[in-house]
Amino acid sequence: MSAADATVADEPKQPPWRIDSLAGSVVILLSLTVAQRLIGFLRGVLFCRWLDVEQLGQWDLTFGFLMMAAPVALLGLPGSFGRYVEYFRQRDQLKMFLRRMGASSALLALGAMSIAVFAQRWFSQLIFGGDEFGGLVVLSALTLGAWIAHNVLCALFNALRMTRIVSAMQFFNSLAFALVGLTLLLSWRATAASVIAAFGAASLLSAAYGAVRLRGVWRNLPDEAAGEPQSQFWRKLAPFAVWIWITNWLANLFGLTDRYMLVHHSGLPEIEALALVGQYHSARIMPLLFLGVAEMLAALITPHLSHDWEAGRRETVVRRLNLLLKGFTFATAASALAVLFISPWLFGVALEGRYAGGLAVLPWTLASCTWGALAIVAANYLWCAEKPRLATVAMFVALVINIALNLWLLPRYGLLGAALATASANACLLLATYAAAALVGLRPDRGVWLLTLLPLALGLGTLGAFAVIALVALLAAVTPLLLSREEKQQALAMAYRGLFHVPFLDRLVSKLGCYMNLQKLIPRKRRPPLQLPADRGPLRIMFVITCMPVGGAETLLVNLIRRLDRSHYLPELCCLKYFGPLGETLAQEIPAFAGLLSGKYDLRVLPRLTRLLRERRIDAVITVGTGGDKMFWGRLAAWRAGVPVIASALHSTGLPDHVEWLNRQLEPLTDAFIAVAGPHAEYLAECEGCPAAKVQIIPNGVDVERFRPLEPDAALRAELGLPA
Questions:
Q1: N or C: the chain end with fewer CB closer than 10 Å?
Q2: How confident is the model at residue 514 (pLDDT cuts 50, 70, 90)?
Q3: Predicted local confidence at residue 367, as pLDDT
């Protein structure tokens, strides 16, 4: 790493626009995804009801072609945004990056559209298995241009960590697609052409919205520094982008394999093969939502993981990704179970009983998409490590397995064979991705490997899957088999920050009167300003702790108190329960108090401690230790007593102690949270719910005078026969 790179890693610049935190991004994603996917689900059901099964098959194949053609046409350039936008922004070269990427993407999109139009007969045979679908190919080419614009802008805003805009674009696209599509089906004709045209119109509208928002970002960008020459610029990006391109091509070909095999290798006539694709489409309406969520989640976490990676926090990337994989596995499996539960109504009532074949293969399409979604999320580590070629190898292996299994199972079992083949191939893809990421440092832990097997439970039916998933949830909650204690605390902290620190959710839940946060119940008592020593003498500081046994934090407190300048500070000690050995030592040197708390549920500690602080005229209270009674009662009593300054000194990183939910509610009363080192400060902000602006660092130290070598003892050396 060069000196310039080291400087960037040590002191990352903050962007001039508002970025969303990872926890907030996930909450925004999930919030709008619920509404967006509900719209998509209703739209898909109506398409299944109003289109003939052959027309539904045509739309399914067209959609698959668009999903494959867009990233292939762009040569993987948008896939590099998440990795390199932060790199160029830190060097004030983002405008240069955006100009070059925008021009390249536009030229590639026009080229792809032109090729599709001029070679429409070949594409008609490739996509639909016949030469008579040239009109659909031309319409698909026009739609491809709009879809490319939408994808490029979404990838860019994700890389800029502006999740709100991405979510708004995705939601607007889904809503417009539903409205325009249903309008065309009712007023024009009930064919695949109406659906394709509606998808193109929706993509164009959402891209226009994104372009307007991009203008605002462009105006806020600083003047660019000297940019890299074109040759050097493309030498850096091209290898990464090419591997992304190959991986995307293989991934989309992998996703189309089962349907193309049904069209070209099922041995059925063209109309019957398209009808079989339509049956398969009905079984993938809900499972495809999992892949959509995974793609959005992967796109939004890549910039956050890349930011940590560029800052040299590789272990943070590993921990975050392991936790995300576990949470996403369980959430997706539970969602799949819910789909199984409603499937009789979905296929019998909503789809009017027309898709019995789709219902039969539903458990395996759910399992298949769950494994595929996890592979998408896991591949983020390979992007951060700039090893996309390993993802390509994993995808190629899975593609070969998918083709081979389809060739074997499709003639024997028909549609069920295609579903089983694709599910098995997706499982192999996930395992290969884990193995590839492990080669460059991911180290999937035991919980990740065990949860990989969870989608198999879907093949047991609704009751069997429910029993297995409930057992897994119980094991995760009460044992460290799947989640460590630190991971449970981190998950709770992320959920807490995501729920209570996303502004629009905060306002929404508050209006509904459901914001059950005790911070809102704490009145803002005006505390007197702190007077300086020149005005009122030395400041009285009360250190509040449970007790003082011989320990690291307690020894540190003893050394700190002994070295405070008594002309400025008068330290006092309050041990809520009993002194302990070190407390008894300090009690001989400074005012010390004990015995205020007789047990865990002794509420009388609050008036006792409040009275003590008032009587001693304390100017600052510092609670010592992470969480527990001293942190809760100490700050609450200091607030009641009107103490001007309230702080908490924390010494743990989750083991054995952590900041409990009740203690987090007292954050508004606290002026500072004291960390002992830089990484510890980051941990308090990320995992313990301490606002970063309130975290102060006072590094731990060692009294080097105590460990200074002694002068040689001449008598001892003579006794040992050593020369003087």
A1: C
A2: very low
A3: 94
